[in-house]
UniProtKB/TrEMBL annotation:
This is 3-hydroxyisobutyryl-CoA hydrolase. Belongs to the enoyl-CoA hydratase/isomerase family. PANTHER family: 3-HYDROXYISOBUTYRYL-COA HYDROLASE, 3-HYDROXYISOBUTYRYL-COA HYDROLASE-RELATED. Pathway: Amino-acid degradation; L-valine degradation.
């Protein structure tokens, strides 16, 4: 881990001077580029990076000369979400509320991306994980390539799977499948399930970026037409789970995580020994039982809320997770899986049956601490308030 990420929350001013280019801001007066530039950390986002991005995106939004903003990453990842190791270090050395501030910032960035008033084009030519999916796939134009791989691996490391809004809007019960199993989608699959808007070959991406820079317009139709000229043909693998949506839906529509696991096992018993089913079962069995249940409830509830409502819900749940309201799995998982101390985390509760409904319920309510407040997102004219969720917290 770099010096940068360890010290951020404490010495953000100092870090800013040491590593000023973790996000690069380029472009000219009409087309701006926001470039995640922390390739050795797969562009995992720190608090400082989030702050810089939010600040600049607001400045661009407000600057009448700016027509278009391009969002991209350096290296083989677009973004692997938040820098969880740095977060773990702050919270174990200090207080869980550092984590709460971090997630508040993260959700604010995603919200800004989702409601951005100017065309935002995310060029995603690599790995996208966890919160990185929100930062890219909530943009107006989401361009992916054959190098794009998307996954939500949080449950495997003991954490809570977010991106409730995106996942709950996928076809059928695909969102449940992705969040519960951490399964990866490749570029062709991302397009097929409607997460991204355009598939462009990686070799053509630079040309597209140049063309967008030269066009410098805010007109959605013109931008769409331009991007269309670069669109390539994705090649959906025969073995893809997307080609088996019927079975995905049959298994992942189960009412509880236990039901879903049973349904998958039944497929195997009935002779359907497909790799994706075996992988799904193995992944669910080694992930945090508490995290799986929290995610399932979120994605189901999320279908009833808008973007803002989903974010309010996620913020409450993640605060309970990092505060250890019902389980310490986040800390155990990061320690074992990301810091390599101990091979297999011993989740507690250790089994799905031991995670009681009441425990899950508690994580969807207020955090019982005097200073805690529900997430407050700034009013943005292009999104309606969701009082439905807010009234519950
Ligand atoms: C946006 O522009 C207006 C008018 O130029 C200014 O008053 C306001 O402070 C700006 N806001 C931001 C976030 O830059
Ligand atoms: C911005 O850069 C693009 C591409 O290099 C160029 O076509 C355009 O004229 C530039 N705009 C300004 C205002 O400099």
């Amino acid at each position: 881990m770099s010096v940068c990420s360890v010290s951020l929350a404490f010495f953000s001013g100092w870090c800013f001077q040491l590593c000023p280019f973790v996000v690069a801001f380029q472009g000219n007066s009409t087309v701006k580029k926001v470039i995640l530039n922390r390739p050795h950390m797969l562009n995992a986002l720190t608090y400082e990076m989030l702050s810089q991005m939010i600040h600049k995106l607001k400045v661009y939004e407000n600057d009448s000369k700016v027509r278009l903003v391009i969002l991209k990453g350096t290296g083989r990842a677009f973004c692997t979400g938040g820098d969880v190791v740095a977060l773990y270090n702050f919270m174990t050395a200090g207080h869980w509320s550092f984590g709460a501030s971090f997630f508040k910032k993260f959700l604010n960035l995603e919200y800004l991306v989702a409601t951005y008033k100017k065309p935002l084009v995310a060029l995603t030519d690599g790995m996208v994980m966890g919160g990185g999916a929100g930062v890219s796939m909530l943009a107006r134009f989401k361009i992916i390539t054959e190098n794009t791989v998307l996954a939500m691996p949080e449950a495997a490391i003991g954490s809570y799977v977010g991106e409730t809004y995106l996942l709950s809007r996928l076809p059928g019960y695909l969102g449940e499948y992705l969040g519960l199993t951490g399964a990866q989608l490749d570029g062709a699959e991302i397009i097929a399930c409607g997460l991204a808007t355009h598939f462009v070959r990686s070799k053509d991406l630079q040309q597209l970026e140049n063309a967008l820079s030269e066009m410098a317009t805010s007109e959605t139709i013109e931008i769409s037409q331009l991007i269309s000229k670069f669109v390539g043909k994705p090649n959906l693998k025969q073995s893809s789970a997307i080609n088996r949506l019927e079975i995905v839906n049959k298994c992942f529509s189960g009412e509880t995580v236990e039901d879903i696991l049973l349904a998958l096992e039944k497929q195997i018993e009935n002779g359907r020994e497909e790799k994706w089913i075996v992988d799904a079962i193995n992944s669910m069995k080694s992930s945090t039982p508490t995290g799986l249940k929290l995610f399932l409830r979120s994605v189901r509830e999320g279908r009833r809320y808008n973007q803002e409502g989903c974010m309010l819900l996620e913020y409450a749940v993640i605060c309970h997770v990092i505060r250890r309201t019902v389980s310490n799995d986040f800390y155990k998982g990061v320690n074992a899986k990301l810091l390599g101390k101990g091979k297999k985390p011993e989740w507690q509760p250790s089994k799905l049956e031991l995670v009681e409904e009441e425990m899950v319920e508690r994580c969807f309510g207020r955090v019982d601490e005097a200073e805690w407040e529900p997430l407050q997102l700034p009013p943005r004219s292009n999104l309606v308030q969701d009082n439905n969720m807010a009234s519950k917290l």
